[in-house]
Amino acid sequence: MRYVVAIDIGGTDIKAALVNENLEIISSSLRPTPKLDSAAVKTIATIKEIVNELSKGYTVSALGVCVCGVFDDINGICIWSGNLDWKNVHLQELLAQELAIPVVAGHDIRTAGTAEMRNGAAAGYANSIFIAIGTGIAASLVIDGLIRSADGYAGEIGHLDVGGDAQCVCGRKGCLEAEASALAISTAYEKAAGKSGVSTEEIAKLVRDDDPIASQVWNDAMLALARACETLITTLSPEAIIFGGGLAKSRELLINPISDALDKRLTFQRKPELKIAHYESTAGTVGCAMAAFDLINEAL
């Protein structure tokens, strides 16, 4: 049995797992993403610690890592990440210098989208969109059976203008990410309710309990997501839109209001199936494992 380490670098946390070739998670690790780390020095050190920790008692054949932002998958370079404050970080090269195993690096959402396309909720569709909602928002675009990257710039739907006045990490206001990400929902609730440290899971529970403040914040975010989906549907006409990331845990509380809003907004467009990701918040980790096994299989 062969093993790889899979690491998903998000704006808030680094999720990691030791995975076997059956894509079974043997052990996992969760650490906060280092802050004030524009050169990625602390992040590289953290990843090295994680690999050493998860490798104890196992022979690890490769590392698959993915990261949020604009990412050059071919060369393993993070071109820009607002949530990490990275610009032109040669992640794959830096990690290869520190580790004695092969390394493959890619974009977090395209990596997660690959997992869903191969074995998950996007399997069987020639045209689909995988949207991950976490600290930020981005998408994996499958067109005619292929994930499109456009040199790493495709899929940054978190920066579609959906109205509103919340400040985004990109420097503009009104971006989808600033209005409807998990971080945006928590921030908006804290501002409206005067309470700090409230997670989106707690806000979702309040919504189910008909809390008026939580419900208003949630409905505003869902409308922003529906506006973005309308643009994507009109432009790309996907057969399915799959939602992943931490917010996907809310399931019908996410799907139903977006579906209802689209029913009111769409006219001639084909309405896609709206689905929750099969791998939910672990799609990025599973996709990293797939990429790592692809890497070592290509070398055989």
From TrEMBL:
InterPro entries: ATPase_NBD, ROK. It holds the Pfam family ROK. This is Unannotated protein.
